[in-house]
From TrEMBL:
It comes from the Bacteria. Pfam families: Peptidase_M23. Residues 198-296 form the M23ase beta-sheet core domain. It comes from Aquibacillus albus. Keywords: Signal. Residues 1-21 form the signal peptide. The keyword Signal applies. InterPro entries: Cell_wall_metabolism_enzyme, Dup_hybrid_motif, M23ase_b-sheet_dom. This is M23ase beta-sheet core domain-containing protein.
Length: 319
């Protein structure tokens, strides 16, 4: 059998599997959106808040109650209520035990693993406080009892609302590839200024004024001066990752805390600021310090951004 024939047969065998995977992802997105909007119609809680809660839990839960679409996972003692030792899931019984669970699909069973029941239960919890942005924020605080969690969910909702979809998969390299730049993996290297510490990022060397771009969809959480990082910006993306851009020469006009950004948006330019009081510059060659941090719902930590940068760079060069 010729090499050409083997190649042709492999394409025939592989292509249906590839299409099937793409169709599965597309159908999953459509089904999620349909469920979010159905629940919005019943409870008046905007779909993008429900989608943001679901996305936050997907980012932080090791295991989810549902094996299907929804990642929101309510602890069993909260779902069934205190004293409900038999875990009676009858929707008319749970209120006796002050249970969180509700019947979302009309079968009179509050199933903690059923997508419709889970999403409706969360929406019902919020609805009891109210349907305004302020009310939703209060309800989220009462449930999660963590400021960063509430802020993250509100910001994810802001992104979903702006783009009117949850299908936001684009990314970009932080430096335009037509400019001269260089970088290597420097995460974890020793740093001495301000005391011994590790380098929590990758340095991308480029000339003064080279544009710096957002790499993912997210919201600007931080902007301003830092003794170590100079002029810097922090962006939280929809996956709960915090992206830290430091040593900037300056900011793009109009960029402020609370702005929604998408991959490719220019947010500032390369500089050499930092290692001193506001305005200090030139203590090292111009470069972008790019750091990434992950929040698991309890704590946040730095991780190596180099593999992401390499992936985004390859994708940018192939466009």
């Amino acid at each position: 059998m010729s090499i050409r024939m083997i190649f042709f047969l492999s394409l025939i065998l592989f292509l249906p599997l590839q299409i099937s995977a793409e169709e599965k992802s597309e159908n999953e997105t459509k089904n999620k959106m349909a469920l979010y909007k159905k629940t919005e119609a019943i409870t008046q809680i905007p779909w993008y808040y429900l989608a943001a809660i679901d996305q936050y839990e997907r980012n932080t839960q090791k295991e989810t109650a549902s094996s299907d679409l929804i990642s929101i996972t309510i602890p069993e003692d909260v779902w069934y209520g205190m004293g409900n030792v038999g875990k009676n899931s009858n929707a008319s019984i749970l209120p006796i035990f002050n249970g969180f669970g509700q019947d979302g699909n009309g079968d009179n069973i509050a199933d903690p693993t059923n997508d419709e029941d889970i999403l409706y239960s969360m929406a019902h919890w919020i609805e009891k406080v109210g349907t305004s942005r302020h009310d939703i924020k209060i309800a989220l605080w009462r449930y999660y009892q963590r400021e960063l969690t509430v802020q993250t969910i509100m910001n994810i909702a802001k992104v979903y609302k702006k783009f009117n979809t949850i299908e936001l998969t684009k990314s970009d390299f932080p430096i335009p590839i037509q400019y001269n730049y260089s970088y290597r993996n420097t995460w974890g290297d020793a740093r001495g200024f301000g005391g011994r510490r590790i380098h929590e990022g990758t340095d991308i060397f480029a000339n003064y004024g080279v544009p710096v771009k957002a790499t993912t969809y997210g919201v600007v959480e931080l902007k301003g001066w830092n003794r170590y990082g100079g002029w810097r910006i922090g962006i939280r993306d929809i996956y709960g990752r915090y992206h830290y851009f430091a040593h900037l020469n300056g900011y793009k006009d109009g960029i402020n805390v609370g702005n929604v950004v998408e991959p490719g948006d220019v947010i500032g330019s390369v500089g050499a600021t930092g290692y001193g009081p506001p305005g200090t510059s030139g203590k090292f060659p111009p470069h972008l310090h790019y750091g990434m941090y992950k929040d698991n719902g309890y704590s946040e930590w730095s991780f190596d951004p180099y593999p992401y940068l390499r992936k985004w760079e390859r994708a940018a060069r192939n466009r």
